[in-house]
Amino acid sequence: MGKYFRGGICAMIVAGLFPLSAACGGGGAAPDPGGASATSTSGTSPAADAPDASPTPATVSPHDKDASPTPSVVDTDGDGIGDAMEESLAAEYMPFVSIHPSDKCPTHGLLYRLSPHPKEPGRVMLWVDILYDQDCGANGHAGDDESFGVVIDPHVPAPAGILAVRGISHQGTPCEHDTTCGACKGMTACQTAMQGGVAYPMVFSSVDKHGNYADLNTCSGSVVCDFGGCAASTTSGSTPRLNAGEPGHPLVHDLTTDGFVTAANGWKQAALMHADPWKPGNFGGAGDVSKDLVDPAFVIDTTACP
Fold first, then answer.
1. Is residue 288 part of a domain?
2. 162 is a domain residue
3. pTM for the full model?
4. pLDDT tens digits for range 274-286
């Protein structure tokens, strides 16, 4: 797709020159689906921690059609989207993650990869791997990884710019369920929860087993694999969020050093400490995170969206 998306509007958004909230009018901060106390951790390498080289004129909108990108924007993972803008997009467009209120092992964090949609210029693909300290359901084990995908239209402020969400529970097993919701023609509308005074699409995590669903009823019907089903939580709580970067240009090499999988965040499984999400292999007794972050099964066709 090249260094920047086609067109002045998209180029400004992707370049990471300005906070997306400026496009929403009024200058107020965009609601963060991770909750008011949600945290974002960053890598410890000098490149990953380098500040955005471009100052932010508060009066300029990222939707300015006459604006053009500047080459000074820091893009450590080399995907054409500035580091600061990746964090801004992830914070604003993250769906409401509903962890079951009765989950006995809820310690988790959101590891994400955000990059241009591989087939739809001007749109952004967000892979989210919810990593857990443990799976405490039937045949439980240390660690758990369950993913979902989101397609974003960065021209449109969230939540309206969240075009589609896909959950794939227990992928690659007999218990797999694929669910997709969204605003495109032919899609089922997403169920929503209030966050920051607006309704955000929800992703439901099944109790103790953590399978991700974009549809509550499908989860509730999975009585064998997800006994106890899913439930709508009233808040998505305080959840660490970390940008993994790209396969060839990772932003993270050690989940503990980068402040994600730590005792301070409630993690207890020694086998998960200092895990490298881009190193092939299982996350404890769970799946391969490096494969989750590039899985094409989560790339949603949103060409039917306006």
1. yes
2. yes
3. 0.80
4. 999 999 999 999 9
